Each structure stands twice: as structure tokens, then as C-alpha cells.
Amino acid sequence: ARELLAYVGLAGRERHRPPQLSGGEQQRVAIARALANRPALVLADEPTGELDARTGAEVAALFQRLNDDGTTLVVVTHDEELAAAAKRIVHMRDGLVVRDERHGAQPVALAGR
């Protein structure tokens, strides 16, 4: 658990209760929990939706690091900056794929409308 908290940038915050953490820190705790079993795939629904721009950028950087370390991420987002960092963007409308953009060799799918 400590290793995962350090990975998401929360080393030294292990003894803090959720109300003592910022929204971004709480989001990173949720990501650390999701990584506990070392999944090959992480699904994230609007991970930056309730965060300010700076904290959202920190979460985006963490997702990039996860992907660089070999984890596949599928992220549903309306955050254009988060989507722009993806190597693949699948645009959906009313449950249908309307556009599929590939920006690199390693697939990362982010869907938004």
C-alpha cells in the first residue's frame, strides 16, 4: 500500500483521513486502490471531472506514467486536454462510435463527446 501511495505521489500521507485530503489527493488514493492488484487494464469514468486544472493535470500525468509502465487505460472524459494526451481517442455519441483517432502505436482509448 505504501509503495502504491508513493507511486501516485502521496508518500507521507498514509495516516491522513479522507476529509484531510484534497479532491486531487482523494482521486489519487482511488487510483492507488485500483492499482492494488496490478491490473493490465484500468477503466476510469470522468477522472478529472471534479478537479481543478492543476490537479487534473497531475492525474493526467499519472495516467501517462501508468501507460508508459505498461497499463492500458480506457478513460471516459469530456476533458479535451486529458483526451488530447491520448494515443487513441474514440469519440462516441448516443452509444455509437462516431470517430476513431490514432495518435501513436500504443492504444489508449479515451471517449468523449
Helix and strand topology:
Blueprint: H1 2-7, H2 23-34, E1 41-45, H3 53-68, E2 72-76, H4 80-84, E3 88-93, E4 96-102, E5 109-112
Parallel strand pairs: 1-2, 2-5, 3-5
Antiparallel strand pairs: 3-4
Helix pairs in contact: 2-3
Descriptive notes:
By secondary structure, this protein is an alpha/beta fold. The chain has one domain (2-112): 3-Layer(aba) Sandwich (Rossmann fold). It is 35% helix and 24% strand. The protein is built from 4 helices and 5 strands. The protein has helices spanning 2-7, 23-34, 53-68, 80-84; strands spanning 41-45, 72-76, 88-93, 96-102, 109-112. Strands 1-2-5-3-4 form a 5-stranded mixed β-sheet. Strand 1 (41-45), helix 3 and strand 2 form a beta-alpha-beta unit. Helix 2 (23-34) runs parallel beside helix 3 (53-68). The relative contact order is 0.15.
